[in-house]
Amino acid sequence: MINWFKGIHHPEAYHGLNNKSPFFEGWYNKVVTADKHPFAIIPGIYRSGEIENNFPFIMIFDGESGDVYFERFDILDFSASSNKYDVIIGENRFFQEGIDLKINSNEINMTGSLRFSVIIPGRLNLVSLAVWAGMVICRLWSVIMEF
């Protein structure tokens, strides 16, 4: 179970270290370019309780075209901080100050680094209370990018 006090003070951090399977946690990063092109980039981890069905992933949603890309990674490619927003999946890093992406697959090639100029963290609301009650694990970060 998530440490309730720690969850309140670090809702952006990874909460899966001591949680049993099944478990899901994801972080929603909304990125809007200077020309108003929106993207959602969602790193996450899923543990089903079955050894062959545990995996981190990165999902990219193109808000303009509606295209969705889902890249699955090996569980050994995942690491995350339980004290702050800092998630590593393969060669990709997601942290409060930015995103470093290196995804080269048959579906999508996206490589580069973003550094955030404005960060709007999620706020305490009914969904947040459900998170701390152990019902849902999801992080919300909205980011406005200027290139």
Taking the sheet with the most strands, its summary is:
6 strands, mixed
Beta-strand residue fraction: over 45%
What is the number of E strands? 11
Task: List the secondary-structure elements in sequence, H or E.
Answer: HEEEEEEEEEEHE
Number of helices: 2
**Whole-number count of domains:** 1
What shape does the CA trace take? globular
Distance between the termini: 40 Å
Mean pLDDT: 77
Rg calculated over all Cα atoms: 15 Å
Give the strand order of the largest sheet, numbering strands 1, 2, ... along the chain.
Answer: 4-3-2-1-11-10
Helical residue percent band? under 10%
Structural class: mainly beta
Poorly predicted regions are 134-147
